[in-house]
Amino acid sequence: MIKILVNDGIHPDGKLLLEEANYAVDDTKIPQEELAEKLPNYDAIIVRSATKVRKELIDQCPNLKVIARGGVGMDNIDVEYARSKGIRVINTPKASSQSVAELVVGHLFTLSRFLHRANRDMTTKGATEFKALKKQYSKGVQLRGKTLGIIGFGRIGQEVARLALGLGMRVLATDLFDNTVNIDLGTPDVSDVAFSIRLSTVPLAKVFAKSDYITIHVPSSDQPVIGAAEMQQLKDGVFLVNTSRGGTIDEQVLLEALESGKVAGAALDVFTNEPTPNQDLLNHPKISVSPHIGASTLEAQRNIGLELADAFIDFFGEDN
């Protein structure tokens, strides 16, 4: 019988599907420091972002056949090394795209209408300074007609484009590889109206120069996508959103750009020092923050569990 360690949790529907395929599923959390001792007893491990599966651990687990990541990014796994040892590495790129994209758009609205600041102030001043707050937060802007730059045009970037186009925004997308895709608008199960818009990627320099808003959807890298040099290429008064990886935007450079007015506002769902983000970012009045919840919706978590189960069944088969 195939034994699977689910070390960072899985949706009950995903677990049930694995158990119905006759896998032994253990969702008892094993601390990182104990994995080298206990993981050799399993054929596979499912992790999210908390558990690290590095070369040293892989070398101590000769029975390991699959490493699965419930999510998109695999920064916590030595992917190429695992594959060089014949281990299958799985992630779930389709399951959470909608949830991440909706969070991006939520932050776009929040920044444009100062919702993050108004919510804070209304709780403490709303009953006594209502008119002053109304005046203070009455200079928001509409998203319709603005240009959204999307850096990284994979599944999530394309889903953000779909939502942005539906809002009447212009979209400029860039990627490491030239890409032309059809973005489907409309939902056939809800409306009879549906059509496609064909989008082609453009150079990064154009995204920097022309975008009123920029959202980033790329894997982690040793260098930030937006550092000091890149910041100077952006439009004055741009809004930035990062739901990809901490450090994709240089945090110190961002703080300086917010103070100078180069950046009008930023939204961060990810941070360099998770789970202890820089307090200056959390407290900054021009930054909308959320605690790394891009893929954390009930629907996405269920989809992740089911996608993982399908991948295991495809790899191992049923009734093992």
TrEMBL record:
GO terms of molecular function: NAD binding; oxidoreductase activity, acting on the CH-OH group of donors, NAD or NADP as acceptor
Domain D-isomer specific 2-hydroxyacid dehydrogenase NAD-binding: start-end pairs: 106-294
Keyword line: NAD, Oxidoreductase
D-isomer specific 2-hydroxyacid dehydrogenase catalytic domain mapped to chain residues: 4-317
The keyword Oxidoreductase is annotated on this UniProt entry: yes
Protein family (similarity comment): Belongs to the D-isomer specific 2-hydroxyacid dehydrogenase family.
Name of the molecule in the record: D-2-hydroxyacid dehydrogenase
Lineage: Bacteria, Pseudomonadati, Bacteroidota, Saprospiria, Saprospirales
